[in-house]
Amino acid sequence: MKIMVAIKRVVDYAVKIRVKPDKTGVETQNVKMSMNPFCEIALEEALRIKESGFASEVVAVSMGPSQCVDTLRTGLAMGADRGIHVDSTATLFPLSVAKLLKALVEVEKPTLLILGKQAIDDDCNQTGQMIAGLLNWPQGTFASKVIVDKEKQVATVDREIDDGIETLSLDLPAVITTDLRLNQPRYATLPNIMKAKSKPIKKYTPQDLKVEIKSDLEIIQVTEPPKRKAGVMVSSVDELINKLKNEANVI
Amino acid sequence: VSTLVIAEHEGGTIKAPSVSAVAAAKSLSDDSSISLLLAGSGPSLHEAASHAASCHPSVSQANPLLTNKFKNPLAEPWAKLVHLVQQSGGYSHIIAASNSFGKNVIPRAAALLDVSPITDVTGISESHTFVRPIYAGNALSTVRYTGANPCVLTIRSTSFPVPQKSVDSKVDQAPISQVDLSTFDEDHDKSRYISHTSQDSERPDLGNARIVITGGRALKSAENFKMIEKLANKLGAAVGATRAAVDAGFVPNDLQVGQTGKIVAPELYMAFGVSGAIQHLAGMRDSKVIVAVNKDADAPIFQVADYGLVGDLFEVIPELLEKLPEKK
Q1: What region holds the Electron transfer flavoprotein alpha/beta-subunit N-terminal domain (chain A) (predicted)?
Q2: List of domains in chain B
Q3: Which chain A residues are Cβ-neighbours of B108 within 8 angstroms?
């Protein structure tokens, strides 16, 4: 069985982002870029499933400009067997990503498609659900535990939901999106980083996959959120209680 | 503007986040008609349908759907149902709350409808122009939907508060009509519900509480975290936690406040031993009054706090427990 993992190149989670003065977006020039943390968890889970003998191959897919190849190399260094880069300089909203992924699923025929539950740049939390809908595959979103039963061709998924944990059983093939506590992703070792350089990355364009990139969304502007006004430091519990009672009137 | 609100119900009433979705639907346009879609089984569905029909004056129709198929909130049949109801209703907008149900179902339904959903909307400027936070709320993106109907949204419920209803308000109850399921394609279930585990608590729901008391890694253990719970009980507050506190196993995952956890905006947010990572701030920065107690005077949480106290939480919390007035 083959596992496909979608990975996104995003501004590193530790970078304090800056909104561009012309309000067209967020500064990404000369900013550290990394694999989206949820995608790292997705790839780690795929590798663990392969290492337990349930899968034979892990294919990592990334979409966007040519620098996505760097992110794919990171994935290959973690242990993915090969990469696929869908080369596009156009803005790809989740619906387009889902359509491109669907076309790739038709080529690669994976049994499991694992994605991060959301990307930490646009915070959309959409792509996994959308590709599952397009493929008419069952979905296990926000997964904190995944058990694959190869015999029965079933995945049992624990999902983190608003009021606890929900457990679902999904027929394979299925789509899984990962939450934070699913696993702790590994670091790539130096030998594996070297090895990753010779692993294949196949390039497609949206035209190759016969997907027309059109958008029904328009970003009008990106602005900074309103700043909170500076607060005060208090020196004792008594002062704090007094302020909360008589100034803020909240207790 | 005609809006379909995908609503959840529990114990015969519409859940608060879904009522927020109705409030958001109302703010799309002055002359908007709003229909609610509910599903489930048993008498509580009927009660919920009556509640739905009167939960907001602008609701013109409630569509309860009685079927065992929707006993559990699985995304697969729900997305198909939304697709089916849209085909017969031709709504201009579909809205649900951005909670774990809405996040799971709405993008899938949007894909079936071949439209881009706009998730986690915090502001509506026109019927097709919305504001949503990106980068953990460190930037706000204004997005216009230019595609065909329907415009599909999930809304952040804290941004669309529901006014307390006055007791004497007379609301004409909207008609309740059944959804025709004759064309619903009952294919083989590829997804099955197994179980749900949650910890029942007497405390108010984290998402809607007036006061939230949050503990971070500095609590050091699940045992110590009970101090936070005690303080919450005293104030009638909900308990929240940082990712670090959840990862360390002090409390279950559903108490996590942050970019990928719960988004809260209470009147009072008190953070103990919370450093203030941007991912955490994303979940609480809209709180009205923020109190931070931390040993480290340089902790970033102090930059958003209205009242900061540098001190050892193991001394401050017991003192607060002793000196705070008992919740009546």
Answers
A1: 23-213
A2: 2-159 (3.40.50.620), 211-323 (3.40.50.1220)
A3: 129-130, 132-133, 139
Contact, B1 vs B36, CB < 8 A? no
Q: Quote ipTM for the complex.
A: 0.96
Residue pairs spanning A and B at CB distance below 8 A = 251
Contact call for A218 and B146, based on CB within 8 A: yes
pTM assigned to the model = 0.93
- Min Cα–Cα distance to chain B from A148, Å: 14
Average pLDDT over residues A152-160: 97
A121·B246 Cβ contact <8 A = no
Q: Does the pLDDT value for residue B166 go beyond 50?
A: no
pLDDT digits (tens, 9 = 90+) for A84-140: 999 999 999 999 999 999 999 999 999 999 999 999 999 999 999 999 999 999 999
Q: What pLDDT is stored for residue B169 in this prediction? A: 47
